[in-house]
Amino acid sequence: MGSRKVYAVLLAVVVVSLGAGLFFGHAAEAKSAKRCVVVWSEGTAGTDVYPKDINGAIAEGLGSLEGWEVVVAGIKDPEQGLPDKLLNRADVLIWWGHKKHGLVRDKLVEKVVKRVKEDGMGFISLHSAHFAKPNKALMGTECSWGAYEGDSTTLKVTVKDPNHPIAKGVKEFTIDHSERYSEPYAVPEPEAVPFEGVHTLKDGREDPSRIGLCWTVGKGKFFYFQAGHETNPVYFDENVRQIMRNAVEWAAPAKK
Ligand code: ZN
Asked: Is 144 helix (H, G, I), strand (E, B) or coil?
């Protein structure tokens, strides 16, 4: 092969490579234009109710959200599931924890708080995550409920604020829920309470409490949902899944 031919072949290779680079570059850009929700849980829910843990069940319910990438993360993953690269591109972080709150590293909690307060990342805290470190740090209060009793059978959820975005398409519904949290809930006064509920106890008594509460913390939006005890299949319920989808859209920062 003459040297000219070699140059011609090399040139062709360079042109094709550049073209491919541009093409894949665009594809990557289009992909990153999707917003990102990370669903985090600690992996302590029983596999009889949650074969793919709670984060897996919630992610499944979020699957129909258009324009969203849904990422599942857990405490056993590298960097406790939230390496900087992922945390920094998350628009919303959903958190379920119960027994392992104490194992979550303070440094990670600091980063989560910063992302919410300074960058406007949305935070959704579920059930026993009221005592999770990021939940407490963002609320700045004890975050304790008046009582925790495993004596309920069902929870009837009612829509208190039908005009709230998180209540869109949601009507009153009842789920099996064997653990009730009783008022008062030691948190700052919420800006909105889209959902209230009534726990029915085994002896027939009823215990009402707030179920869905909203705040703004710094630049970020925060939603707490009280239902979600790990022995009840709460996150498979279509009403709850609608609430989770609405909450993700609501909590997300405005598109840049
Ligand atoms: Zn529970």
From this structure: coil
